[in-house]
Write a structure and sequence with these properties.
The chain has 8 helices and 5 strands. The chain is of the alpha+beta class. Helix content is 32%, strand content 23%. The N and C termini lie far apart (51 Å).
């Protein structure tokens, strides 16, 4: 069953109804991030074009792979353990993916699992962060990183009405 078929399932199956199909399709097929859905054994259940492009494979080629074919950071036994242990709360971490051409990219990965029709599926959102490590190092060393988050800097009342009028107007597109 493809994601498009799964999306059309009823709400009782945990997915949107046919009426809500379009937003889910847009999210999956047009995301700037790579999305891959794995079965419990690490095989590709479904993937979007962006994920295939990130790794340099066609969608048909990608569907023949297992996660250990492209993950360049973890060993197969570690990945099998991760697949087994991931729960509905998911994981968020950085890893490295091996592209078809042999190059390696840094990837930020957020994943979560669910069961659909008795089948455990792992939804993975993958962002290529290869160009960002040097920027992150610069940001970490920046004095601005030691400041408190904006709501605390703005005072105890962090609602938009507590912001100065000039900021409130520009934030909401008013003049």
């Amino acid at each position: 069953m493809t994601l498009d078929e799964t999306i059309g399932m009823s709400r009782k199956d945990g997915f949107p109804t046919e009426v809500e199909k379009s937003p889910w399709e847009v999210l999956f097929h047009h995301s700037r991030d790579g999305i891959v859905i794995l079965d419990k054994g690490g095989g590709v259940y479904e993937a979007n074009r962006q994920f295939a492009s990130m790794l340099g494979y066609s969608l048909d080629e990608l569907r023949q792979l297992q996660i250990w074919d492209w993950d360049h950071k973890f060993q197969k036994h570690e990945l099998e353990c991760m697949l087994r242990d991931i729960g509905e709360d998911g994981h968020h971490f950085e890893t490295r993916h091996l592209r078809k051409d042999g190059t390696v990219i840094d990837v930020e990965l957020s994943n979560v699992t669910t069961t659909i029709n008795g089948q455990k599926l792992i939804f993975c959102l993958c962002r290529d962060i290869t160009p960002y490590p040097s920027r992150r190092a610069i940001l970490r060393s920046s004095p601005s990183q030691t400041r408190e988050p904006c709501p605390k800097r703005c005072g105890s009342n962090s609602s938009p009405s507590s912001l100065p009028a000039a900021n409130r107007s520009s934030k909401h597109g008013q003049t």
